[in-house]
Structures are given as C-alpha cells and as structure tokens.
Amino acid sequence: MQPSASILYQNKARTVTLIDIPLSISLSQGTPDHPCTDLLYSSPPLEKPHQSIEPRSKKAKQRVQERISDTGHALQPFPRDLLTQGLAEIHAEHPFIFCSERRMNHDVLPAHHNKDQVQKETSQIVEEGTQESEIKPPERRTGVLREPQGPLILSSSATTEEHGIPQASDLVNKVIGNLSARPVLIHVGHPDRKYTIPPLSIFMLSNVGHREASHFSKMATKLFPEPSPSAAPGQFDFILLDPPWENRSVRRSKTYGSRRKADEDPMHILSGMLAKHMAPGALVACWITNKASVRDAALYAFESWGVELVEEWAWLKITVHGEPICDLDGSMRRPYESVLVGRTVDVTFDRFDESTSPKATTKRLIVGVPDFHSRKPCLKEIIEPMMQDSSSYRALEIFARNLTAGWWSWGNEVLEYQWKGHWTEGHG
Q: Any bridge partners for residue 165, and if so which?
C-alpha cells in the first residue's frame, strides 16, 4: 500500500526533514477524504555521487574563480555546518531508508529529456505514442496568442466526472477549476490523452505576461468573492514561486532571456501585481539557485511585495545511500537548492518559531533523493503546519509543473505531470 506521508523523518523543531520527492507530488493530488492512490513514474534513485567537474590544478581553479567574479555568478553558500549536522542527524535517527520504492517506466520521459519533440510554433504540443503528452501555451514570438477567457468550472458535484476538451488550445489562457471533492478526468482531442485534475484545484495554463496577470487578478477575485477568516477577496495565505532563473540575466537591469525586454520579465510583471493577492500575514516562498545574483533578485521581489525574509531553507540532494550528490563546497555546482521564505511585514507574529523575534531568519534543511531534472519536492506537507488554519488556507503556486489538490496553479507547464501516462496504480 502507498505510504500516508512523504516525510520520512522530521525532528521536533522541524529544522531537519527527510522527504520523498515523487511521493510528495503523488500525495498532493488527493485530500484526506479522497487520497490519491496512484504513484508518479520516477527516475532511478541515484546510487553514487556525480563525477566531479571541479578544476584540479591550482591554475585552473584560479581561472574559474576569476570567471565567476567577472560574470557575477558567485555562489551564495548555505551554512556548511547545518548541512553536515542535519545529514548526520538523519543518518543517526533514520538510517538506511532515504527514499521510498520508485516506479519507473523508461518509455515515458518528461519533455526536457526529449527536446527535439517540443514544437514551439504551435499552441498545441501533443506527442504521439508512449512519449509525454504535453500541453503548453505558444511562445510569444509566434504571434498566436489566445485572449484570456472567463473561468471554466469542470465540476462542482461530489462525483468523479470526465470531460472532453476538443483541442489543447481550449485550455490555454483560461482559468479552469475542479470545485468538487473528487478528481476530474479530462481528455484533450483524443480519448487516450487524459489529464487528471485534482479535487478543489484551480489552474491557469498561460505564460506570465502583463495581459495574463491582469486576467488572473480578475479571476482570483471572481472565484474568491468573499473574504475568508484570514484573507480578503482574491487573496492567498501562501504563495510559492519557482521562477525560471536559468534563463534570467545576471543583473536585474538586463532582459529576461536573451530576446525579451526587461518589462516582459515574469518576475518584473509579478512585482507589479502580486502584492495585492497576499493576505495579511501571508507566507511567500521562492525557489532560488545558488547564485548570489539570483538571491538578490528574489529579495528585490520580496521588497516590492512588502515581504520580509523570515526563513531560508536548503534542499540537500543525496544518493540512495545518504551521500551528497556532489561536493558541498564545489566552485562549479553545489548539491542543494534554496528556498527563501518571507511574510508580509505588517504582521508581528511568527508561526515558524515562537521563541524567536520576527526579525530572526531561521534556517531549515530538507533532504531528499532527487528525481527527474527540475522536479522539486512538493512543499504542501511541510507548509501546512505553518498555516494559521491548515484545513482552510488559500494557496497559489506560480511557475508550477503540476497541480495540487486545494491549490491554485499558474504557469505554462501546470499540466506537465497531470498526464495519465506519467502515473501508475500504487497498490498491489
């Protein structure tokens, strides 16, 4: 039977957590009343650390450091002692089992493992055979942009339903919701192209542009017309972002990607509209890379939203035997990614750690065996204890690659892992 939690180990202070990556996504597809029993296909767990790419000679190391300094790609380290002590704690308290058993299907790969198949000139990207059935909005340069449309409610009843969508473009630039307590299945253009929409989830499959942001704001207020105990209409208690930093310029003054103007940078667009969707005391979490310039850009966005940094997390990637996947002090790469966590500044309480001042920055460590490239752990199980009411909070994930039960999701890859071909039955 499928485990009931993706957290394999967590200390009392919640400063060290061992999490199973694919299981965290699988469990996020369901609710306590209607749990998801399927499992997400995964990559084989890493058996040994990656081969080192560090320069060996003193002269080569000096050249690398000079290049990093010249380009502004300096790495922002997470405290090494917290990494080593946290990993040692897991080895002592939860030895031997560092991830759950995985289901693998080598005929099904995410799109980035087969980039030649990505058709960027159309608004419908659906691959035949056993490869991924992927749906994305068109690239802006094609000029084929669908006008944002009003919400499409797939179901508000208590029974599982199926919906036929004539073509993939009918899902683009439209807020779509499953307001029922059960998952809804949609098939797009063909009966075999099936996507599961989790219960109580709402999504917008679109790029993050000015027009889309305006439409999102209108739909958030329309679907959340009444205040909750903690949020005004159209507001969220928790917002998670996973920006495409790999395409960002080193400096904020440059463009987002080599062909985009600064005002088309999604983070620039969000800096102008996201604050109004943050409830009083809302938590905001943002994945960042280890580049100091990226951290600066994320903190700049926090400042524009009126968000104060209160936590810094690291996701330490380990092998199936509990070793870091590369050198903790590498000059070229590090075995961890970071999450900056903030709270809107007009609230004085701190639910992370009541013994500390709201100004203090708490460090936490999440440890997990990595899965496919860019697949991150779902933070739902970690975040919910930090909510004022974990049963009724409003959450939004931007730049999401999958949907989450009970959450809103927005981005051009929100259905990436909702295709049924990525899943298998979890029992037996």
A: 188
Which positions ≥6 away from 377 have C-beta within 8 Å?
A: 6, 19, 21, 24, 25, 315, 366, 368
Measure the CA–CA gap between 296 and 364, rounded to whole angstroms.
20
Q: What pTM does this model have?
A: 0.85
Region class of 362: left (phi > 0), else alpha (psi between -120 and 50), else beta: beta
Q: Rounded CA gap, 236 and 251, in Å?
A: 30
DSSP letter string over 6-73? SEEEE-TTSSEEEE-HHHHHHHTTS-SSS---EEE--PPPP-SPPPP-S--SHHHHHHHHHHHHHHT-
Residue 161: in which H helix or E strand, if any?
strand 161-165
Select from 237, 179, 177 the least CA-distant residue to 31: 179
Q: What is the pLDDT of residues 30-39, one digit of tens each?
A: 999 999 999 9
Start-to-end C-alpha separation, the chain: 7
Residues listed for the chain: 428
How far, CA to CA in Å, does 220 sit from each of 9, 149, 156, 198, 233?
Answer: 36, 13, 17, 18, 8
CA distances from 66 to 78, 292, 331, 333, 388 (A): 22, 15, 11, 16, 47
Predicted pLDDT at 95: 86
Pick the most confident of 76-90, 112-126, 334-348, 350-364.
76-90
pLDDT tens per residue across span 171-225: 889 999 999 999 999 988 877 789 999 999 999 999 999 999 999 999 999 999 9
Residue 135 has pLDDT above 70, yes or no: no
Q: Cα dihedral sign for 103, 415, 394, 368? A: positive
pLDDT at 141 over 50: no
Determine the pLDDT at residue 322.
96
DSSP track, 320-352: TTS-BSS-TT-SS--SEEEEEEEEETT----SS
Give the sheet arrangement for strand 278-288, strand by strand.
7-10, 16-19, 362-368, 307-317, 336-344, 278-288, 236-241, 395-398, 408-411, 201-205, 174-178, 149-155
Binned at pLDDT 50, 70 and 90, residue 131 comes out as very low
The three-point CA angle 14-335-372 to 5° equals 90
